[in-house]
Protein backbone atom coordinates (compact mmCIF):
# COMPACT_ATOMS: atom_id res chain seq x y z
CA UNK A 1 0.00 0.00 0.00
CA UNK A 2 1.52 3.33 -1.08
CA UNK A 3 1.18 5.64 1.91
CA UNK A 4 0.14 3.22 4.63
CA UNK A 5 1.97 0.03 5.53
CA UNK A 6 0.72 -2.95 7.51
CA UNK A 7 2.81 -5.53 9.33
CA UNK A 8 1.52 -8.56 11.18
CA UNK A 9 3.56 -9.32 14.30
CA UNK A 10 2.03 -12.38 15.93
CA UNK A 11 -1.43 -11.39 17.11
CA UNK A 12 -0.66 -7.67 16.70
CA UNK A 13 -1.15 -5.64 13.53
CA UNK A 14 1.01 -2.54 13.06
CA UNK A 15 -0.32 0.22 10.79
CA UNK A 16 2.14 2.96 9.78
CA UNK A 17 1.11 6.18 8.04
CA UNK A 18 4.05 6.68 5.69
CA UNK A 19 4.24 10.01 3.92
CA UNK A 20 7.28 11.52 5.62
CA UNK A 21 7.83 14.32 3.07
CA UNK A 22 4.61 15.94 4.26
CA UNK A 23 4.99 14.84 7.91
CA UNK A 24 2.43 12.09 7.18
CA UNK A 25 -0.33 14.60 6.37
CA UNK A 26 -3.61 13.06 5.24
CA UNK A 27 -4.66 13.62 1.66
CA UNK A 28 -7.25 11.56 -0.22
CA UNK A 29 -4.70 8.92 -1.26
CA UNK A 30 -3.40 8.42 2.28
CA UNK A 31 -6.96 8.16 3.60
CA UNK A 32 -7.90 5.64 0.89
CA UNK A 33 -4.81 3.56 1.69
CA UNK A 34 -5.66 3.68 5.38
CA UNK A 35 -9.17 2.45 4.65
CA UNK A 36 -7.85 -0.44 2.52
CA UNK A 37 -5.48 -1.47 5.30
CA UNK A 38 -8.28 -1.36 7.89
CA UNK A 39 -10.54 -3.42 5.58
CA UNK A 40 -7.76 -5.97 5.09
CA UNK A 41 -7.08 -6.76 8.76
CA UNK A 42 -7.59 -10.46 9.45
CA UNK A 43 -9.82 -10.26 12.50
CA UNK A 44 -9.43 -13.97 13.24
CA UNK A 45 -5.66 -13.68 13.61
CA UNK A 46 -5.33 -10.14 14.93
CA UNK A 47 -6.15 -9.28 18.53
CA UNK A 48 -4.87 -5.71 18.78
CA UNK A 49 -3.63 -2.98 16.45
CA UNK A 50 -0.89 -0.38 16.91
CA UNK A 51 -1.12 2.72 14.70
CA UNK A 52 1.87 5.03 14.27
CA UNK A 53 3.55 7.44 11.86
CA UNK A 54 6.75 6.88 9.86
CA UNK A 55 9.87 8.70 11.05
CA UNK A 56 10.75 10.29 14.35
CA UNK A 57 9.20 13.70 13.88
CA UNK A 58 5.53 13.29 13.13
CA UNK A 59 2.62 10.98 13.84
CA UNK A 60 0.33 12.85 11.44
CA UNK A 61 0.56 16.64 10.91
CA UNK A 62 -3.11 16.91 9.97
CA UNK A 63 -5.23 16.88 6.87
CA UNK A 64 -3.37 18.04 3.77
CA UNK A 65 -3.58 21.84 3.73
CA UNK A 66 -2.52 22.15 0.08
CA UNK A 67 -5.33 19.84 -0.99
CA UNK A 68 -7.89 21.69 1.17
CA UNK A 69 -6.78 25.18 0.14
CA UNK A 70 -8.89 25.28 -3.03
CA UNK A 71 -11.94 23.33 -1.92
CA UNK A 72 -15.46 24.68 -2.30
CA UNK A 73 -17.96 24.45 0.58
CA UNK A 74 -19.40 21.24 -0.91
CA UNK A 75 -15.94 19.72 -1.52
CA UNK A 76 -15.00 20.59 2.06
CA UNK A 77 -18.11 18.85 3.39
CA UNK A 78 -17.44 15.77 1.25
CA UNK A 79 -13.76 15.66 2.37
CA UNK A 80 -14.90 15.89 6.00
CA UNK A 81 -17.31 13.01 5.51
CA UNK A 82 -14.63 10.99 3.71
CA UNK A 83 -12.27 11.31 6.69
CA UNK A 84 -15.01 10.90 9.27
CA UNK A 85 -16.28 7.67 7.68
CA UNK A 86 -12.79 6.12 7.71
CA UNK A 87 -12.09 7.22 11.29
CA UNK A 88 -15.49 5.81 12.33
CA UNK A 89 -14.51 2.54 10.67
CA UNK A 90 -11.21 2.53 12.60
CA UNK A 91 -13.03 3.31 15.84
CA UNK A 92 -15.55 0.53 15.16
CA UNK A 93 -12.91 -2.19 14.68
CA UNK A 94 -13.90 -4.94 17.11
CA UNK A 95 -10.31 -5.31 18.37
CA UNK A 96 -8.49 -2.76 20.57
CA UNK A 97 -6.41 -0.10 18.86
CA UNK A 98 -3.44 1.81 20.29
CA UNK A 99 -2.12 5.05 18.80
CA UNK A 100 1.65 5.25 19.29
CA UNK A 101 2.01 9.00 18.78
CA UNK A 102 5.64 9.53 17.75
CA UNK A 103 5.64 13.30 17.13
CA UNK A 104 3.21 15.89 15.75
CA UNK A 105 -0.45 14.93 16.18
CA UNK A 106 -2.10 18.06 14.85
CA UNK A 107 -5.59 18.53 13.45
CA UNK A 108 -6.45 15.31 11.61
CA UNK A 109 -3.48 13.70 13.39
CA UNK A 110 -4.92 14.29 16.83
CA UNK A 111 -8.30 13.23 15.45
CA UNK A 112 -6.79 9.99 14.13
CA UNK A 113 -5.16 9.27 17.50
CA UNK A 114 -8.48 9.91 19.23
CA UNK A 115 -10.19 7.37 16.95
CA UNK A 116 -8.03 4.73 18.63
CA UNK A 117 -8.97 3.18 21.97
CA UNK A 118 -5.73 4.08 23.75
CA UNK A 119 -3.05 6.72 23.11
CA UNK A 120 0.56 6.64 24.26
CA UNK A 121 3.23 9.02 22.98
CA UNK A 122 6.90 9.92 22.76
CA UNK A 123 8.43 12.82 24.71
CA UNK A 124 8.59 14.95 21.54
CA UNK A 125 4.87 14.52 20.73
CA UNK A 126 2.82 17.67 20.18
CA UNK A 127 -0.98 17.68 20.15
CA UNK A 128 -3.37 20.32 18.91
CA UNK A 129 -6.37 21.31 16.84
CA UNK A 130 -4.91 24.32 14.98
CA UNK A 131 -7.77 24.53 12.44
CA UNK A 132 -9.18 27.92 13.49
CA UNK A 133 -5.84 29.46 12.52
CA UNK A 134 -6.47 28.13 9.00
CA UNK A 135 -10.02 29.42 8.87
CA UNK A 136 -11.80 26.08 9.38
CA UNK A 137 -13.14 23.89 12.18
CA UNK A 138 -11.66 20.52 13.08
CA UNK A 139 -13.25 18.23 10.50
CA UNK A 140 -12.34 14.60 11.18
CA UNK A 141 -14.05 14.29 14.58
CA UNK A 142 -12.10 16.81 16.67
CA UNK A 143 -15.08 18.85 17.84
CA UNK A 144 -16.71 15.64 19.08
CA UNK A 145 -13.97 13.26 20.26
CA UNK A 146 -11.77 15.82 22.05
CA UNK A 147 -14.71 16.83 24.26
CA UNK A 148 -15.35 13.17 25.05
CA UNK A 149 -11.66 12.53 25.72
CA UNK A 150 -10.74 15.46 27.98
CA UNK A 151 -13.99 17.28 28.85
CA UNK A 152 -15.63 20.39 27.47
CA UNK A 153 -13.58 23.14 29.19
CA UNK A 154 -10.14 21.96 28.13
CA UNK A 155 -11.33 20.79 24.70
CA UNK A 156 -12.96 24.14 23.98
CA UNK A 157 -9.80 25.95 25.08
CA UNK A 158 -7.64 23.84 22.75
CA UNK A 159 -10.05 24.18 19.82
CA UNK A 160 -10.84 27.91 20.22
CA UNK A 161 -7.22 28.96 20.77
CA UNK A 162 -5.68 26.52 18.30
CA UNK A 163 -2.76 26.24 20.74
CA UNK A 164 -0.67 23.10 20.78
CA UNK A 165 0.21 21.14 23.91
CA UNK A 166 3.27 19.05 24.66
CA UNK A 167 3.42 15.42 25.70
CA UNK A 168 3.53 16.06 29.45
CA UNK A 169 0.44 18.29 29.29
CA UNK A 170 -1.35 15.69 27.15
CA UNK A 171 -0.54 13.15 29.86
CA UNK A 172 -1.69 15.49 32.65
CA UNK A 173 -5.10 16.06 31.06
CA UNK A 174 -5.62 12.40 30.15
CA UNK A 175 -5.30 12.68 26.38
CA UNK A 176 -2.54 10.05 26.50
CA UNK A 177 -2.03 7.22 28.98
CA UNK A 178 1.78 7.35 29.08
CA UNK A 179 4.84 9.17 27.71
CA UNK A 180 8.05 7.37 26.65
CA UNK A 181 11.43 8.35 25.21
CA UNK A 182 11.10 8.21 21.40
CA UNK A 183 13.31 5.11 21.18
CA UNK A 184 11.13 3.18 23.63
CA UNK A 185 7.71 4.09 22.23
CA UNK A 186 7.13 1.22 19.79
CA UNK A 187 8.40 -1.39 22.25
CA UNK A 188 6.00 0.01 24.84
CA UNK A 189 3.13 -0.02 22.34
CA UNK A 190 3.89 -3.62 21.36
CA UNK A 191 4.15 -4.68 25.00
CA UNK A 192 0.75 -3.14 25.72
CA UNK A 193 -0.78 -4.69 22.58
CA UNK A 194 0.65 -8.12 23.39
CA UNK A 195 -0.63 -7.92 26.95
CA UNK A 196 -4.12 -7.23 25.57
CA UNK A 197 -3.67 -10.01 22.99
CA UNK A 198 -2.81 -12.53 25.71
CA UNK A 199 -6.29 -12.20 27.23
CA UNK A 200 -9.42 -13.99 26.02
CA UNK A 201 -10.13 -12.28 22.67
CA UNK A 202 -13.92 -12.63 22.74
CA UNK A 203 -13.97 -11.16 26.25
CA UNK A 204 -11.70 -8.25 25.25
CA UNK A 205 -13.84 -7.51 22.19
CA UNK A 206 -17.03 -7.70 24.25
CA UNK A 207 -15.49 -5.21 26.71
CA UNK A 208 -14.90 -2.83 23.79
CA UNK A 209 -18.46 -3.31 22.54
CA UNK A 210 -19.92 -2.77 26.03
CA UNK A 211 -17.89 0.41 26.59
CA UNK A 212 -18.62 1.82 23.11
CA UNK A 213 -22.35 1.06 23.20
CA UNK A 214 -22.89 2.06 26.80
CA UNK A 215 -20.75 4.96 27.86
CA UNK A 216 -22.78 7.80 26.40
CA UNK A 217 -26.18 6.41 27.39
CA UNK A 218 -28.02 6.47 30.72
CA UNK A 219 -26.90 3.91 33.34
CA UNK A 220 -30.09 1.84 32.97
CA UNK A 221 -29.46 1.20 29.29
CA UNK A 222 -25.71 0.97 29.87
CA UNK A 223 -26.23 -1.81 32.43
CA UNK A 224 -28.37 -3.73 29.92
CA UNK A 225 -25.60 -3.36 27.33
CA UNK A 226 -23.11 -4.77 29.82
CA UNK A 227 -25.39 -7.70 30.70
CA UNK A 228 -25.69 -8.58 27.00
CA UNK A 229 -21.95 -8.70 26.36
CA UNK A 230 -21.18 -10.32 29.73
CA UNK A 231 -23.64 -13.12 28.99
CA UNK A 232 -22.25 -13.52 25.48
CA UNK A 233 -18.86 -14.63 26.89
CA UNK A 234 -20.29 -17.71 28.60
CA UNK A 235 -20.04 -21.14 26.97
CA UNK A 236 -17.07 -19.96 24.90
CA UNK A 237 -14.05 -22.27 25.00
CA UNK A 238 -11.97 -19.41 26.36
CA UNK A 239 -14.38 -18.73 29.25
CA UNK A 240 -14.32 -22.40 30.16
CA UNK A 241 -10.53 -22.61 29.93
CA UNK A 242 -9.99 -19.33 31.83
CA UNK A 243 -12.15 -20.41 34.75
CA UNK A 244 -10.94 -24.01 34.74
CA UNK A 245 -7.33 -22.80 34.89
CA UNK A 246 -8.15 -20.68 37.95
CA UNK A 247 -9.98 -23.49 39.72
CA UNK A 248 -7.24 -26.03 38.91
CA UNK A 249 -4.56 -23.54 40.06
CA UNK A 250 -2.71 -23.62 36.73
CA UNK A 251 -1.90 -21.17 33.94
CA UNK A 252 -4.22 -20.73 30.96
CA UNK A 253 -2.98 -22.84 28.09
CA UNK A 254 -3.42 -20.01 25.56
CA UNK A 255 -6.76 -18.55 24.58
CA UNK A 256 -8.16 -19.78 21.28
CA UNK A 257 -10.51 -16.95 20.28
CA UNK A 258 -13.39 -19.41 20.39
N1 LIG B 1 -0.62 19.48 5.05
C1 LIG B 1 0.23 19.50 4.01
N2 LIG B 1 1.58 19.54 4.13
C2 LIG B 1 2.08 19.59 5.37
C3 LIG B 1 1.27 19.57 6.51
C4 LIG B 1 -0.16 19.50 6.32
N3 LIG B 1 -1.03 19.44 7.34
N4 LIG B 1 2.06 19.63 7.60
C5 LIG B 1 3.32 19.68 7.16
N5 LIG B 1 3.35 19.66 5.80
C6 LIG B 1 4.53 19.69 4.93
C7 LIG B 1 5.08 21.10 4.82
O1 LIG B 1 4.35 21.86 3.88
C8 LIG B 1 6.51 20.82 4.41
O2 LIG B 1 6.50 20.51 3.03
P1 LIG B 1 7.69 21.12 2.10
O3 LIG B 1 8.95 20.55 2.63
O4 LIG B 1 7.34 20.59 0.73
O5 LIG B 1 7.63 22.59 2.23
C9 LIG B 1 6.83 19.52 5.14
O6 LIG B 1 5.58 18.93 5.51
C10 LIG B 1 7.63 19.75 6.41
O7 LIG B 1 6.90 20.69 7.19
P2 LIG B 1 7.57 22.02 7.82
O8 LIG B 1 8.68 22.49 6.96
O9 LIG B 1 6.48 22.97 8.11
O10 LIG B 1 8.18 21.41 9.16
P3 LIG B 1 8.41 22.18 10.53
O11 LIG B 1 9.18 21.25 11.39
O12 LIG B 1 8.94 23.54 10.31
O13 LIG B 1 6.92 22.35 11.16
C11 LIG B 1 4.72 21.63 11.79
C12 LIG B 1 6.18 21.23 11.53
C13 LIG B 1 4.65 22.54 13.02
C14 LIG B 1 3.93 20.37 12.02
C15 LIG B 1 4.18 22.40 10.55
O14 LIG B 1 4.46 21.65 9.40
C16 LIG B 1 2.71 22.66 10.60
O15 LIG B 1 2.25 23.54 11.31
N6 LIG B 1 1.92 21.87 9.83
C17 LIG B 1 0.50 22.06 9.73
C18 LIG B 1 -0.22 21.55 10.95
C19 LIG B 1 -1.71 21.83 10.85
O16 LIG B 1 -2.13 22.96 10.79
N7 LIG B 1 -2.52 20.75 10.85
C20 LIG B 1 -3.94 20.84 10.76
C21 LIG B 1 -4.38 20.73 9.34
S1 LIG B 1 -6.12 21.08 9.16
C22 LIG B 1 -6.92 19.64 9.55
O17 LIG B 1 -6.32 18.68 9.94
C23 LIG B 1 -8.39 19.69 9.34
C24 LIG B 1 -9.14 18.53 9.88
O18 LIG B 1 -9.47 18.49 11.04
C25 LIG B 1 -9.55 17.45 9.02
| Strands, count | 10
Number of helices: 11
Q: pLDDT below 50 for ≥5 consecutive residues: which ranges?
A: none
Structural class: alpha/beta
Q: What proportion of the residues form beta strands (DSSP E)?
A: 15-25%
How many structural units, i.e. domains?
2
Main sheet: strand order: 1-2-3-5-7-10
Per CATH, which architecture of the largest domain? Alpha-Beta Complex
Protein model, in words:
With 258 residues, the protein is of the alpha/beta class. The protein has helices spanning 28-40, 65-68, 73-91, 108-114, 142-150, 152-161, 167-172, 185-197, 201-214, 219-233, 237-247; strands at residues 4-9, 12-17, 48-53, 58-60, 97-101, 104-106, 118-122, 126-128, 165-166, 178-180. Helices cover 47% and strands 16% of the residues. A hairpin with a 2-residue loop joins strand 1 (4-9) and strand 2. The radius of gyration is 19 Å and the shape is globular. It binds acetoacetyl-coenzyme A. Residues 22-23, 25, 61-66, 83, 104, 106-108, 111, 130-131, 134, 138-140, 142 line the site of acetoacetyl-coenzyme A. Acetoacetyl-coenzyme A (CAA) is lined by residues 22-23, 25, 61-66, 83, 104, 106-108, 111, 130-131, 134, 138-140, 142.
Amino acid sequence: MGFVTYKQDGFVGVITIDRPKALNALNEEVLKDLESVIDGIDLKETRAVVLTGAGEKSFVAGADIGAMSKMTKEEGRVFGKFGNDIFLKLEALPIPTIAAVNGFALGGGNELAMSCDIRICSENAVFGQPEVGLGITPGFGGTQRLVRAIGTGKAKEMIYTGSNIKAEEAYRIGLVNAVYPQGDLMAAAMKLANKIASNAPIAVQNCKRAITEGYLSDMGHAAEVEEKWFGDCFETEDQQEGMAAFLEKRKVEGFKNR
